[in-house]
């Protein structure tokens, strides 16, 4: 689906600190250019001006990536889910609502979109407020928000038909924590459901963790250089397991969707690579806590256990 003619919300800059740093470099280089010109230091003036031009070009490309290509990429990502409109969908790391609002816009009254994020600190509060502003700008009304930790999702097993995450999971620190985060996404997904992630780092970890969670059609794309920093897609479908079978039985035919161009084509991942995750190292800890059943609500500081049947569509914003 094209975004042409649509009002698009404000989804911020992907690397605000780096962008600000580039701005300081540009300002400094221009100051050196002016001073060098005054004192007639032509070589210094030329070098400083060249630095200013190159840095400005890089900054403009990065801003365009955040403001234009990122918004276009969300449509490509959601297209891969091949939504029919009646799905229950989870967006992990909603932030300002880039993926959540696109998915919610494509669902009908039978569908349900839920976004989770921590929304901690001043920036988190600002992002949550901006999400509602973006929803109003794009005319999206039906979605729910939950403040939760991706390492402990407050949803029952198999609660969702699809799970997406955009440029979020790399914020989870530590290899073991990232693997556990992917396992949590897999737990909340029903058999046959699809997961599509896009992230800048750790795509190999996501692929191996999905395979270890009994996903099929698992793959990752080549780097998308239209996004800066570049990112990759990772996707797969949750397989059916019978008794002790470790391989899918009657695998559902659930392709991720046709690639938009050659740069999006999924490439086979070499299982012989040194960094493949040992499945034996990823067995769940018997002492590890998991989300209690839907009918259990604990009066603790932990996020409240939620059921999609219990949630109501959000009020108009």
What does this 3D model show about the protein?
The chain has helices spanning 16-38, 42-79, 98-106, 121-138, 175-188, 203-212, and strands spanning 88-92, 112-117, 144-147, 160-166, 189-199, 215-221, 232-238, 266-267. It is an alpha/beta fold. The protein folds into two domains: 16-68; 80-282, 3-Layer(aba) Sandwich (Rossmann fold). Strands 3-2-1-4-5-7-6-8 form an eight-stranded mixed beta sheet, with helices on both faces. Helix 2 (42-79) packs parallel to helix 3 (98-106). The chain is elongated.
Overall number of strands: 8
Count of separate DSSP helical elements: 6
Strand % is 15-25%
Find the structural class using helix and strand composition.
Answer: alpha/beta
Shape: elongated
CATH-defined superfamily of the largest domain? Vaccinia Virus protein VP39
Second rung of CATH, namely the architecture of the largest domain: 3-Layer(aba) Sandwich
**Which oligomeric state applies?**
single chain
- State the end-to-end distance: 24 Å
Do you know the CATH topology of the largest domain? Answer: Rossmann fold
CATH secondary-structure class of the largest domain = Alpha Beta
What is the alpha-carbon Rg in Å? 22 Å
Please tell me the overall pLDDT: 77
For the largest beta-sheet, the strand count, sense and barrel status come to: 8 strands, mixed
Q: Would you list the SSEs in sequence order as H and E?
A: HHEHEHEEHEHEEE
């Amino acid at each position: 689906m094209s975004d042409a003619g649509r009002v698009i919300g404000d989804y911020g800059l992907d690397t605000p600190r780096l962008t600000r740093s580039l701005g300081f470099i540009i300002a400094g280089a221009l100051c050196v250019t002016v001073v060098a010109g005054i004192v007639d230091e032509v070589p210094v003036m030329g070098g400083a001006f060249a630095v200013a031009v190159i840095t400005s070009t890089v900054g403009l490309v990065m801003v365009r990536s955040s403001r234009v290509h990122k918004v276009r990429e969300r449509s490509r990502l959601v297209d891969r889910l091949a939504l029919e409109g009646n799905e229950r969908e989870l967006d992990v790391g909603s932030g300002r609502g880039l993926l959540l609002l696109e998915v919610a816009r494509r669902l009908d009254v039978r569908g349900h979109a839920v976004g989770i994020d921590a929304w901690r600190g001043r920036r988190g509060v600002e992002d949550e407020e901006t999400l509602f502003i973006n929803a109003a700008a794009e005319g999206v009304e039906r979605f729910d928000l939950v403040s939760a930790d991706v390492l402990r999702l407050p949803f029952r097993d198999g609660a969702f038909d699809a799970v997406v995450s955009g440029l979020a999971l790399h914020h989870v620190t530590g290899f073991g924590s990232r693997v556990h985060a992917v396992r949590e996404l897999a737990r909340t997904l029903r058999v046959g459901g699809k997961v599509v992630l896009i992230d800048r780092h750790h795509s190999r970890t996501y692929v191996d963790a999905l395979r270890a969670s009994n996903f099929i059609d698992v793959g990752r794309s080549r780097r998308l250089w239209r996004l800066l920093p570049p990112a990759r897609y990772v996707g797969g479908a949750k397989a059916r397991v019978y008794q002790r079978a470790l391989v899918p039985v009657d695998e559902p035919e659930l392709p991720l969707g046709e690639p938009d161009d050659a740069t999006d084509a999924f490439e086979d991942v070499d299982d012989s690579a040194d960094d493949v995750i040992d499945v034996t190292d990823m067995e769940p800890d018997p002492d590890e806590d998991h989300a209690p059943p839907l009918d259990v609500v604990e009066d603790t500081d932990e996020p409240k256990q939620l059921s999609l049947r219990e949630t109501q569509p959000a009020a108009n914003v």
